[in-house]
Amino acid sequence: MTVILPRGGNVLLSDEAPGIERVGIGLGWSGGSGSAAVELDGFVVLDNGGATSSQVLLAHQVPNPTERVGASPPPRPLVGDVEKLVVTLAAVPAEVSHLQFGMAIYDAAGRGQTFRSVRHTYVRVLNHANNVEIARYSLDPGTGLETAMIFGEIYRHLRGWKFRAVGQGYVTGLPGLAGPGGGDIATAHPSRAAAFLTRASPARTRRNVAAHLHPPRTDPPRVPPVIVPSSPPRPQPPHAPPAERDPAVARLPTPPAGPAQPAGPAAPATPVPAATRSPLDLSGPDEAAPAAVARATATRAPARPSSTRINYGEHSSRHKQRMEHVTVLDDDHPATAWTEEKRGSGTMTVTLQWALLKTQTGLPRPSNIHLGCLWQANDAAAGLMQDLGDTVSAPGHAAPRQVLRLGRRDELEGQTIFVDLGALLTFRRFFVFAYGLHTAPEWSLLRPVLTVAARTGEQLTIRLGDAPPRARICVVASFHVAQDDVIIRRENDFLEGVQADVAVRHGWSLEWSPGGETLRDVP
Fold this sequence. Notes:
The chain is mainly β.
């Protein structure tokens, strides 16, 4: 009988299939069709528990003993497993402790595709000897922004080989497998895996890992210039010298207006649209409440005509921040500017990730680190967003449009703040911090990293520095809305106090409950 696993669930293979020697892994999904079809490639990660860097190879690079060399790639099957792999457990090298199986979208940034377009994803484990299914895990992407996902893994245990449902996603595709701090992806040569890993499905493409890391870019075709026959120049009027500015000119009387023109029929009134709901909105159904519409109008930043756009000098720091392309903020380069072109539209994510903690026996143990932020809107509204106190959205449930939303915390994926870029201009600033519940986190073991990512492919990595021994909270980064730009700054500000101390230090005036960790309830 098949064991249906939840995310994080595991099963001992020998309990379900005594004497099992070869394990079959099936990966399946369904997606779009036509030009908008999502191209996914299965991949395998050979992991040794962190002793050295993991190695990756695509599923169709795994040798298939029955496949003819040079065979044309077949289309993806409409039903059933898309990728089929077989692992010979006794032949797995001792240095390989985990084999992880997943899928990655090819050229996700260039195509603008994520796992939101992929449906019915699953991984299943079979006894290859009799083709009996042992376990199955059906997964859904956590945010919809993922471009690569690890479905499941088989790993060594004291009692034997186990299978675990992982369901871990990455918004940066295969490079995300290098970990929160980034780094190079090591590729495994197919011949190294041939002794213990084979493929039972046909190869669908000829791509390799390098094609995922550096997809080709197609430049637009060049249009040859149109040569226009020259014509004799027209005579130009004599150029008059510019007139000197005279302050009195501004005081000259305005000439009388001509006769008034008869007024035409009045233009029909443009209907006022209802308050736009954000994809981050956690409130109930739309209500035609005039007060809510008024609040949305009051907090929405006015559109700026192009004539009022500020031009920064090419030697100014703002101009340099707008034109640069950086991927890491540190002590040497603590701030940058994301223009509207850089950050694009839709949702921006701010994700805190950390290293997994383990007991002395190697089992995972829970950590004490959480993500939160202080925010301030243009209309002087301000508040706190964190799991503690269950304030997980800003400007709150009653607002017509949510700007920030705090996602669920997960030991594997970390915790994410989702930012609605369409409503961000209604905000003035927000500060993101990491904190421990009532005690200081184990900063040195957790090695937290903050990653800021946009759908355009822009990404920033912000690492925390060395923490003081008793620091309970760290302001990691600040985000400031300035004209049409978002200024992102690395703060790396550790405090031994609580959230109220952070607010006072950075200029927030809020009413706090006793203890200073949550806001006081205002009737």
